[in-house]
């Protein structure tokens, strides 16, 4: 029998009170009624602003269903079990509020003040009712709560409701905004007199009227009133306070990839991204993502997980320059799982990148647990240059050596040196801190006479300092310094690496922030990573050429892709990308010749027929284009763009009936093609 286990990878204005954040009424009314009711009635007191904003931007009911499932899972106190106690208790409170507090009211029970408090706090420990014409009191209810409700809420407190002038619904009482006069039928008296009357009638009620917090009920002044108002304000935000609502934005962003039956629970993570140039001046993106939790399935004595990874690099215009998809399957025995439970999980990767400023988006889906995590990071890759450059500093609590190969590339490997940077940049006092940095373009003069300073600051105070000659660090793969953290107090720090010439003038500097935790020791991580091939592999010109092509740098793209294909002429993948470069330069004959070598693969690879059809179309070889387009449609099914091109080929060769068939089929797939609609109408009129 299969089961699921969770490996936790972490050390885990007053006047606006109770008024939910306002959103465009039009946007709320646009969504279907059942979802409108869920948003504005069922969860109105517990949904955060970020969750509501994200929900209102969803376009389909399928997306809304996915969101609602994720919403409740974020609040499930026992994830991994079929029961969601929070959801069940919430709807029990809503039902109770509607049945009890809606009686005799013109509003539904959940809308009343008593219903609102009951939904947020649950049943009080005690309830007392007051109201007597003889003693001049309006109807009053006093609820008493005791327990741990979280930060900002005292361990015991009162909630008071009253009927103003003795009529209507019960209103939530505030000592600061209402005062004791509101609890009396005779309202036109000063507060001190009102308090004397209340004290004579019921001393305990008078105390509550002064302050909702028992320990502060001995006096009646502005300070006690403010404390009670703060209590009410804290209660209003209590259901939203500890909700990690980042998942809502992530679901909105990745809703095209995250399916309804998959990945409905967002897991937070820490991420580190470093742009590092190698000794030849080419830039690589090293990144690590450390989710707060990794869930494993169990089958017999084996534990397993399957991670699907989707990565995209976009430029400032949101144009995709590079993207990748990977799948990683892992299997463990019981001993390995026991060891993993005390460690963090780190997914690491590396890829080459052309110059520019970009955004990296990575989505990781756990197909076993239906969870997902993601990260979005901005980075800049400088132009390749032979001038002096100091790479970003990498901080680590552990280093090692790769004893297998110095020519293979893995994340955070430099030569044979392995660096293990914590993505959260946190260290313990027991750690040894390792500082790694490297240069490109270091001149012989600076190498011989230059020096390096490493300084650590806590705020403005320098708490550690090292100065050495560059010669003392000599290593072709970089420079490594280390020092213990035992004397560092917990807090936030910054580390600076400074390069100086023989005159002690500053040449370059790099900084990195880090944290010293008050915890005596922090968990290490275990990592999963991809390894890139040796530096002379055609993989590198292929990836960089593809990026150049997507960025519109066609001449350089063609040069690199021809180099990659020349080294691996049997690769259909490389041929298709090179053909795309030829097409971008309108060199269709060259593309045709290249793809002709792979015709035997055409029934498995739809792009071959598609691209050969396009080449023939642009060369006005319409007969050939029709042949290739029909081959595509026969083998791979309908395709909007191909149907449109096929129709144009028939139209150019005078076969208007065939053109109409293709175009009408295209309009069935997408009726919003106004230009094509007009073309079809005109063609029918002229027949």
Can you walk through the features of this model?
With 687 residues, the chain is of the alpha+beta class. It folds into three domains: 117 residues, no CATH class; 263 residues, Immunoglobulin-like, CATH 2.60.40.2550; 147 residues, Serine Threonine Protein Phosphatase 5, Tetratricopeptide repeat (Alpha Horseshoe). A hairpin with a 4-residue loop joins strand 13 and strand 14. The longest helix is centred in the middle third of the chain and has 20 residues. It is flat, with a radius of gyration of 34 Å. The two termini are 67 Å apart. About 2% of the residues have low confidence.
Whole-number tally of structural domains: 3
Please identify, by name, the CATH architecture of the largest domain.
Sandwich
**What's the gyration radius in Å?**
34 Å
Q: Please identify the structural class as seen in this structure.
A: alpha+beta
Termini separation (Å)? 67 Å
What's the CATH first level of the largest domain? Mainly Beta
Strand content: 25-35%
Largest sheet: 7 strands, mixed
């Amino acid at each position: 029998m299969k089961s699921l286990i969770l490996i936790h990878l972490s050390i885990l204005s007053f006047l606006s009170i109770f008024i939910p954040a306002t959103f465009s009424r039009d946007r709320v009314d646009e969504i279907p009624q059942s979802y409108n009711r869920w948003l504005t009635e069922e969860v109105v007191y517990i949904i955060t602003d970020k969750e509501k904003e994200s929900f209102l931007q969803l376009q389909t009911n399928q997306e809304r269903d996915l969101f609602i499932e994720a919403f409740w899972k974020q609040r499930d106190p026992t994830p991994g079990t079929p029961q969601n106690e929070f959801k069940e208790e919430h709807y029990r409170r809503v039902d109770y509020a509607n049945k009890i507090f809606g009686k005799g009211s013109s509003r539904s029970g959940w809308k009343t003040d008593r219903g609102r408090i009951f939904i947020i706090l649950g049943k009080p420990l005690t309830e007392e009712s007051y109201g007597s014409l003889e003693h001049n009191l309006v109807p009053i209810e006093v609820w008493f709560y005791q327990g741990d409700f979280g930060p900002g809420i005292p361990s015991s407190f009162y909630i008071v409701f009253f009927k103003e002038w003795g009529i209507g619904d019960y209103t939530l009482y505030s000592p600061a905004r209402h005062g004791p006069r509101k609890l009396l039928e005779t309202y036109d008296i000063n507060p001190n007199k009102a308090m004397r009357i209340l004290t004579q009638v019921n001393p305990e009620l008078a105390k509550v009227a002064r302050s909702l917090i028992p320990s502060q009920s001995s006096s009646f002044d502005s300070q006690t009133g403010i404390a009670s108002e703060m209590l009410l304000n804290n209660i209003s935000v209590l259901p939203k306070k500890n909700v990690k609502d980042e998942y809502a934005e992530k679901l909105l962003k990745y809703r095209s990839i995250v399916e309804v039956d998959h990945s409905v629970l967002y897991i937070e993570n820490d991420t580190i991204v470093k742009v590092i140039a190698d000794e030849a001046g080419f830039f690589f993106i090293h990144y690590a993502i450390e989710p707060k939790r990794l869930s494993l399935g169990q089958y017999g004595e084996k534990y397993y997980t399957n991670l699907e990874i989707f990565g995209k690099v976009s430029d400032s215009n949101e144009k995709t320059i590079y993207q990748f998809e990977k799948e990683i399957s892992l299997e463990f025995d019981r001993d390995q799982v026991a060891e993993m439970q005390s460690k963090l999980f780190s997914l690491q990767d590396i890829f080459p990148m052309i110059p520019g400023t970009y955004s990296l988006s990575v989505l990781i889906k756990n197909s076993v647990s239906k969870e997902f995590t993601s990260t979005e990071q901005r980075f800049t890759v400088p132009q390749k240059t032979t001038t002096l450059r100091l790479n970003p500093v990498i901080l680590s609590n552990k280093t090692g050596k790769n004893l297998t190969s110095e020519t293979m590339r893995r994340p955070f490997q430099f030569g044979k040196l392995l660096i293990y940077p914590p993505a959260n940049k946190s260290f313990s006092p027991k750690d040894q801190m390792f500082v790694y940095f490297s240069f490109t373009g270091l001149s012989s003069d600076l190498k011989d006479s230059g020096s390096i300073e490493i300084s650590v600051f806590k705020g403005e105070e320098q708490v550690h300092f090292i100065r050495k000659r560059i010669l003392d660090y000599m290593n072709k793969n970089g420079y490594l310094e280390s020092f213990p953290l035992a004397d560092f107090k917990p807090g936030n720090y910054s580390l600076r690496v400074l390069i100086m010439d023989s005159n002690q003038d500053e040449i370059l500097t790099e900084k990195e922030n880090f944290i010293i935790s008050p915890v005596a020791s922090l968990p290490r991580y275990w990592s999963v990573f991809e390894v890139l091939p040796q530096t002379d592999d055609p993989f590198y010109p292929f990836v960089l050429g593809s990026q150049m092509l997507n960025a519109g740098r066609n001449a350089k793209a063609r040069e690199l892709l021809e180099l990659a294909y020349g080294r691996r002429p049997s690769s259909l993948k490389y041929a298709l990308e090179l053909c795309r470069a030829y097409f971008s330069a309108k060199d269709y004959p060259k593309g045709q010749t290249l793809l002709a070598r792979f015709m035997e693969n055409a029934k498995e690879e739809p792009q071959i027929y598609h691209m050969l059809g396009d080449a023939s179309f642009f060369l006005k070889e319409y007969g050939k284009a029709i042949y290739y387009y029909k081959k595509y449609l026969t083998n791979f099914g309908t395709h909007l763009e191909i149907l449109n091109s096929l129709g144009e080929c028939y139209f150019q060769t005078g076969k208007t009936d065939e053109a109409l068939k293709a175009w009408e089929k295209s309009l069935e797939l997408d009726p919003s093609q106004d230009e094509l609609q007009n073309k079809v109408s005109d063609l029918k009129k002229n027949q």
